[in-house]
């Protein structure tokens, strides 16, 4: 009898605690957000993730009635920023933008990270991107066929810049050199912007980048586009051939950008952030910005947190296989 009474009492206490917690969480979510939100960008200002983040954050802030402040935290292919985001208070006031590099490939490249995929809660996919290979304007090759011939005649002598090992741009590089069967030196930077700057200045031979951050430089003839890893040509770069058109259909570079929150962030807060993200990418301001960058916003069910979670799960396995050489080091 005593045991039964004790169990009933404990159950009542637990039920009361849960009810109190639920009420408090609900009240918190209703008032959220009451102050500015920080969005961590894992790379230097000016790169693809940064450009997308700023466009989306501005409109999300309007939808939420609070400013979203961008904080660029470069280093280790984005893992420095994700480590910071994983340690943040799970209250919805610190979120991060990530991609297949920072939130999937990084677990193979840096196996001793202080965070795992379970350290984050998906909010929403906000953009679909397309990878491009661009060369310094004076590179001695006018098309992909000539580039591959030159690279094979000069093994290890071509330098291609990217936003750091583990970034989506690094994955574009890896996919490209693997498909092309060439030996090139992949040079990591603390973001896509400084890599592009060096390509413009002919300090390196080229860059692996997303259309979002390299299209303007190609159109202004500061660098010359070689190929886009897409199944269709991009409206902003109509003269740039797809990988299939250029004779290398094996090169595929279609990526994504998504928003994440620290594990433990209340579902009601995630729902508010998801709704704001949906609203943001549907605004004319973001649509125009994305169109200028050859970036596509998700539509329909693609906004759902579950879709982003499936992308992460898929790409963790995909890059575990592709980057097996890193895992064995």
Automatic annotation (TrEMBL):
InterPro entries with a match to the protein in the record: BUG, Bug_dom1
Keyword Signal: yes
Source species, domain of life: Bacteria
Gene3D superfamilies found in the cross-reference section: Bordetella uptake gene, domain 1, Periplasmic binding protein-like II
Family classification: Belongs to the UPF0065 (bug) family.
Lineage of the species this protein comes from: Bacteria, Pseudomonadati, Pseudomonadota, Alphaproteobacteria, Hyphomicrobiales
UniProt keyword annotation of Signal present: yes
Keywords: Signal
Protein name: Tripartite tricarboxylate transporter substrate binding protein BugD
Signal peptide from the UniProt entry: 1-29
